[in-house]
Design the sequence.
């Protein structure tokens, strides 16, 4: 039997040229280009963005504090660049993983071990750079992809008031 869901892609958003890219959620899509379009509609409808990236969810290696002691750098294979993200706190408001760097390693565990030497965190994700697809940070790309969201008016739900049932009049 065929599955009913498209593959899941993790979404990475960079708000400004100087801000750190963050893992902001996931979308289901048929391929990486479709995932970028869906991510744009879900995560960039109103807030600004400088760049947007996606990668297949199954390509991510994840480890939390409990698993740090079991990490072992891979000895086989060729080195390749990995993007490594860290969640730095258990606070509920800290839900995103921030990009802490790009590390050359023979596998994701080696990349996370390198990241741990430079930055503390309570959880880490590593993904091979070769599977990351994103928008180019060129002015014309930024303008066409993200400018339309700048002029959209954002209002909190409370702005619209409450909906109440009308009184029925009986004759």
Sequence:
């Amino acid at each position: 039997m065929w599955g009913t869901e498209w593959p899941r892609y993790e979404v990475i958003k960079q708000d400004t040229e100087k801000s750190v890219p963050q893992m902001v959620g996931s979308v289901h899509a048929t391929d990486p280009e479709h995932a970028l379009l869906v991510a744009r509609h879900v995560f960039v409808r109103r807030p600004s963005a400088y760049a947007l990236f996606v990668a297949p969810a199954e390509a991510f290696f994840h480890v939390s504090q409990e698993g740090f002691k079991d990490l072992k750098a891979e000895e086989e294979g060729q080195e390749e660049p990995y993007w490594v993200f860290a969640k730095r706190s258990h606070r509920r408001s800290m839900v995103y993983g921030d990009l802490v760097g790009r590390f050359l390693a023979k596998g994701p565990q080696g990349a996370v071990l390198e990241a741990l030497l430079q930055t503390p965190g309570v959880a880490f994700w590593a993904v091979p750079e070769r599977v990351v697809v994103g928008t180019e940070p060129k002015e014309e790309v930024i303008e066409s992809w993200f400018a339309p969201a700048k002029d959209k008016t954002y209002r909190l739900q409370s702005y619209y008031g409450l909906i109440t049932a009308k009184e029925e009049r009986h004759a």
